[in-house]
Fold:
Amino acid sequence: MNARIAAATRMGFREQARRPLLLVLLVVLPFFFITRAIARTEPTPRLIGLPGGGEVLTTMKDVHGASMVTITVAFLAALCGAFIMRSAQSADRRLIVAGFRPMEAVVPRLAVLASATGVVLTVSLAVTALSFTPASWPAFIAGNLLVGLTYACIGALAGAALGQLGATYLVLFLAMLGIGILQNPMFGDGTPGGLAYVFPDYGAGRVIIDGAFSPGFHAWGELALALAWLTVLGLAVAGMLRRLLRTAA
Amino acid sequence: MTRTAVFAREQLRAPFTLALLVVIPALFVVSAAGALNDFASALGGSLAGDAAVGLSAGWAAAFISGALGFFQAASSRGADRRLALAGLGPARVALSRIAASVGLAFIAAAAAFVALLLRVDVAHPLHAGIAVLAFALLYLAIGVLVGSLVSAPLEGSLLVVFVFLLDAFSGPGMSGGSPPPWAVSQKAADVLIAAGTGTDTPTDEWVKVAVVTGGALVAAFLVFVASARSRA
Structure:
């Protein structure tokens, strides 16, 4: 790895490690939110649609268990994305003036963002495992990772385009509407439809449900869609960062 | 231009903030009401129909105002210190900041309230409007309190979200049993649900709403003044 990238990445992680309150919140919030939500959900029968056209009869408690980690990861990753991007805008311009190439400043930020998403995901999955066991852990984890990274990118774009307040409003509303309501099989007829298709979290959301309730994997199309969205958003974030940092050169 | 107006304009300087302040509460009411009904049932609560729509208006106003209060308090640390030292004094600065935030919170609450009126027939619209405003002011106070103590935007906004989620999950109609102490918007929510269903709210319940909301604003003011003084 390029020495500058390695140094900037190291400093980026050190910057985050100096914020104990953030680390506490990234652990405590998922623990409380997920545990409480699952514990208070009634085991009411619920029929939900699976990718590939199948259906499964489960309970609201299990559906909530499957969806809570996704909602938590989406919320937290989106906020992390928004504010990591904003701190990058101010601090990384000095790196460019000091001689860094834009990509040498962008890659470390993306690494920090991905790591923050990973921390939230790990804690959320660990807490969820206390109350819910998905049919397929690999698919469940992959889907949630895709959701986290997708919302981290959305947060980063909002952070660059809007002010702090506007970015907070937008990312939390999108996370609530997308993952919290439209993709959530607790609501409606148990199968996302309509507006859910146009949200970037649709594919990853279906991968999660497939991993949670289906013994085999049937969400190949949805997985491809999720990866396509993540690629587009990731390139948009990298491009946005490069443009912002290049103007400082 | 008055200090309050200047502080309010400062928050709205970023692109689309004013539009989001109005659009997001309205969209939340329209999109979340049906889901809240199902969600409450899943948690063993009794929230249904128009009561769910009413509560969504309160929560929309609360969430928007909480974040607003936090950023209003947290982003102004350096400027407030200098203003206080320049002769305004911490109390007047705090009063102007909170007044600016109240004005903006009023806009968000109004947007949520209008969306509520358009979505359902509210039996007591005046009661509902006051209750939605109470949600907004309560969470504004929470946001200012957090912003006075925590300056980092990510940590502070996470704390406000944490308080909001604690409260929302424990609210009336969202779960069975008596509300825990962190259900801070309980009284306002009771009034809002009663307004939606046409039930009259007793005077002592109004007093409780006023005491909780007013007390929260006073507490936020005092903490803000103390933190502004200590920033010197």
